[in-house]
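assembly run, all chains below
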Amino acid sequence: MNRAWVTIFKRDILLALRRRSDVATTLFFFLIVASLFPLGIGPEPAVLSSIAPGVLWVAALLAGMLSLTRMFASDFSDGSLEQMLIAPQPLPMLVIAKVLAHWIVCGLPVVLLAPMIGLQYALPNDALLVLVLSLLLGTPALSLIGAIGAALTLGVRGSGLLIALLVLPLYIPVLIFGAGAVAASQHGMSPEAHLSLLAAFSLLSLVLAPFATAAALRISVE
Amino acid sequence: MNINWFKYSSPQTFYPLAGRMIPWFAWAASIFAVIGLYISFFIAPTDFQQGEAYRIIFVHVPAAWMSMFIYMVMAGWAALGLSLNARLPAMMAQALAPTGAIFTLLALVTGSFWGKPMWGAWWVWDARLTSELILLFLYLGFIALQSSIDDPRKADKAGALLALVGVVNVPIIYFSVKWWNTLHQGSTISMGAAPKMVTTMLLGMLLMALAFWMYTIAVALMRVRCIMLERERASDWVKEQALSVGGNT
Amino acid sequence: MQWSSWSAFFNMGGYAFYVWFSFGLTALWLVWEVLALRKRSAVALNLAKLLAQDK
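ok done. output:
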């Protein structure tokens, strides 16, 4: 059980490291989306810092979504996904391994880059800390829910656009609690309530999403 | 009681059964609509705060109720189809989705036509309108996913799973939008609480909701009949059906 | 009865545009849905008929 899990996890990380352009694309996308807003809105620090929580979180949502289609696509085309479906290990556990690998490759870099962009938006230090914390708690939920969308649209034409339509509405609670946490700390309130709700949502997704993803994979591959 | 449900769930027997049921529901819908409209326009008193514009809620609130209710029913059919691996429930879920989306859109448009005279703006990010907008996205996602998968059985199952994921998320989304709305102090008038609910107003809304409900059943049955014809166009019963209706070719 | 005259009824206390547009759009949309489904059913039956007569 554990061996298969670790093997899949290591393999996905290794594959991602070989194709470093995927990680770079996600990061670059995040950076460029976040840089477009000041150009569109103007460089007022007060305005920028008031829109920063929303803009940075939306940019993180979109950047995370870019790589979703690739979560199962290569396994699907080379047949290793079918191996996983008939493997003796429970499929939801294997899904968690793949999602964790996806999050480390595509989610974590965004979390680490975010405070740098936050500085450009004139965010104060404590808000930057809350931003990192909220992204750290929230982005795993994005990968987990995104996995359901990726599994459902496996092998479907135009899956890139479709996945956005399926997954973005489900991301709304993460956006609200995540951006809300940063905004609360900006207004001198405690971000604790937001962060707890965010953590609760991530935990709930961790419990439910792998099962839904596993079911979706079986539907798509059969 | 030992009814053979599987007999009724085959398209071949359900098609004529649905055809016989449609007129009844259509008549029920019309009767409820006529009484409901009469109450909404002639019995229900003018609201002292909102004037006559409040009468929009007689179509807005029932449409909003239906949009949420249909999503629940759709998810129920989806769950049934997924657990029994049966065709009819999945087709029912598919047949309900466009009508649910239409009611969601109507709730949004009428809500904004109510909001313009009341709030002075066509769109206000109040909790209800926002949730309704997200519900529209959920419906569109379901329809888009089903229509982009070619194999109908696979489309049924994928759609069903998405509907179930959606139905688990709807309360969370609604809660988060409410939370967001109370933090960003938005509107002061909320749609449901604004007019002091006189019994006749409530009765009017209930009757309109019943009319929409009956309409939904009739239309869903019509659509499920179309889906059956399209999916099984090569089968013998469809050919018999086609030859027996006559008409021009 | 709430209205002194028919013109008062149609005027809806000055909100005629909003009220009648909402109800009119709803009615129009629902009727359109029924008509579209009738057409869809007729097309499907016609196609099936053509298929049946082919053989």
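Chains A and C do not touch (no CB pair under 8 Å).

Chain A has a mean pLDDT of 90.

not gonna interpret more than that til we talk
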